[in-house]
Design goal:
With about 500 residues, the chain is an all-alpha fold. The protein has one domain. Helix content is about 60%, strand content about 0%. It has a two-stranded antiparallel ribbon with strand order 1-4. Strands 2-3 form a two-stranded antiparallel sheet. α2 packs across α15 and α8 packs antiparallel against α16. It is globular and about 65 Å long.
Length: about 500
């Protein structure tokens, strides 16, 4: 795999001479070479930040209030500060080292896994659990240095790579619909087999839904008319509408009423500046978990974390790079080793700061949809995350409902890749379908990839074409079988 990050984006005119860079900034980030401009990159960086900013509020709610074996909590304010710090630093590192428009922050899948682990595992403390996240990152970094992670990527059939892109597109669209309240979980008390429902009891009511619909149709209209900054304009316009509506007729949050805002009620803050509490940085125990849980149980936990972040990053980077056009004609990502190395360091940094593993964020697709093609956009996003440590109240201005339209539209852009799957080959078509379907249905990129890999290997064996399967695909499929059977394995080891 080439490490050439300067190659132009893949277009029908890719064989034409590469335009000359316009200054040092252009030369460093290859802005002109990738068909972008400084203004476009700034807009893309802003769009990505707006789409991701909710993580500064949500991550603390996921892991900040759960007590460990000592009765200690990470705390909302401390997790928020650590999340902003790690997100900012790792996003800028991704920009400077890999030069890709990929922002990083605490992964929603892994932080939920950590929260569940803490509630179900006795004798475990937060510093010990975060120490295991650090070890997962260290192992992953070693796998990158040895070339193993890149080799796995190269062993994946092209149709499955395309399916990963399409699956991520459906996944982020589903995230957008759910975050906006357009699609909602059906209460378990209803006694129904239908897992989700349309709006509130089948009806679209409430100001938040109106903001989402206005933002969605405005963004679609602007994109059809090829207006520059269409996605960013849609987010800003929706945010302004949300603030005005909440001021005129308060709806509160979804905790107050079914027609409330999903996470935060948009409002101008009374306090604009706050000093961050960074006391969680470095508060990690690298070896305590192996003593508290035992070597076998702790190793299995590290393995589960490793596998999740390993394939989440691979799948997300494939999807984002394909949409950005920062891939060669074989579908290989420019600077793939650098991308994966920074992502691995994100787990080390996130665990070391008790902010959960920092991963490539799928919402980076929003900035890419805005036109971001280089690391300059990522620098903008990273700087905004660092600023958010001091201006954290401002994050509460942008509600889920204002960002959700961008996710839905970008999802559409990614799903268009489905035509490149070899649907007539059952050994590729069925695994591609399972990959695409499982990502939104399980709310996990890694689970979707695992379903595709395992089914691909199985079907090729059934077809008598096992020799066509790369040896690494057999190894990875076995790893996923162990991952999916983790509950059984843990039961046997106790």
């Amino acid at each position: 795999m080439t490490e050439d990050t300067a190659a132009p984006r893949r277009t029908p005119a890719a064989d034409t001479p590469t335009p000359q860079p316009r200054g040092g900034l252009d030369r460093f980030f290859h802005i002109t070479a990738r068909g972008s401009t400084v203004g476009t990159e700034i807009r893309g960086g802003l769009a990505t930040f707006f789409a991701m900013s909710y993580i500064v509020v949500l991550n603390p709610l996921v892991i900040g209030l759960i007590a460990d074996a000592n009765g200690s909590q990470l705390g909302l304010a401390r997790v928020a500060a650590a999340t902003s710090l790690v997100s900012g630093i790792m996003t800028i590192l991704m920009a400077v080292i890999a030069k890709q428009p990929f922002a990083m922050s605490a992964g929603l899948g892994i932080n939920a896994f950590l929260a569940a682990t803490m509630t179900t595992t006795p004798n475990l403390t937060w510093p010990e659990l975060m120490g295991m996240v650090v070890w997962a990152g260290v192992i992953m970094f070693v796998l990158v240095l040895t070339g193993f992670r890149t080799a796995v990527f190269n062993a994946v059939p092209e149709s499955l790579k395309v399916a990963i892109v399409v699956g991520i597109g459906l996944f982020i669209s589903f995230i957008g619909f759910v975050n906006a309240g357009f699609i909602r979980r059906t209460p378990d008390a209803a006694g129904t087999t239908v897992p989700v429902t349309f709006g509130v009891d089948g009806q679209l009511i409430g100001w938040p839904i109106l903001v989402f619909l206005v933002g969605l149709f405005l963004t679609i209209a602007l994109m059809i008319r090829k207006v520059r900054g269409a996605i960013l304009i849609g987010v800003i316009a929706s945010t302004i509408l949300a603030v005005v509506l909440e001021a005129a007729a308060p709806s509160g949050t979804s905790a107050d009423s079914a027609t409330g805002w999903s996470l935060v009620a948009p409002a101008l803050p009374s306090q604009w500046l706050s000093l961050p509490d960074l006391s969680l940085v470095g508060a990690v125990d690298l070896f305590g978990g192996f003593t508290s849980l035992g070597a076998m149980a702790a190793s299995l936990l590290v393995f589960a974390i490793l596998l999740s972040v390993f394939f989440d990053a691979m799948g997300t980077s494939v999807g984002l790079a394909t949409e950005a056009g920062t891939v060669d004609r074989q579908g290989n990502i420019y600077g793939m080793n650098r991308v994966l190395a920074v992502d691995a360091l994100g787990s080390v940094a996130g665990g070391g700061a008790s902010a959960s593993s920092s991963q490539i964020f799928v919402e980076s697709a929003t900035g890419i949809g805005e036109g971001a093609r280089t690391g300059l956009a990522t620098v903008v996003t990273g700087l905004l995350f660092l600023a958010a440590m001091f201006f954290s109240p401002l994050v509460n201005i942008v509600p889920f409902e204002a960002v959700a339209p961008a996710l839905v539209v970008v999802g559409f852009l990614m799903v268009r890749q489905a035509v490149h799957v070899q649907w007539d080959d059952w050994g590729l078509g069925i695994p591609a379908f399972l990959t695409i379907a499982m990502m939104p249905f399980t709310y996990s990129i890694a689970d979707g990839i695992g379903a595709g890999f395992v089914s691909f290997t199985f079907i090729r064996l059934v077809q008598g074409r096992g020799r066509e399967v790369h040896p690494l695909m057999y190894l990875v499929s076995l790893a996923f079988l162990a991952y999916f059977g983790m509950g059984l394995i843990q039961g046997w080891t106790h």
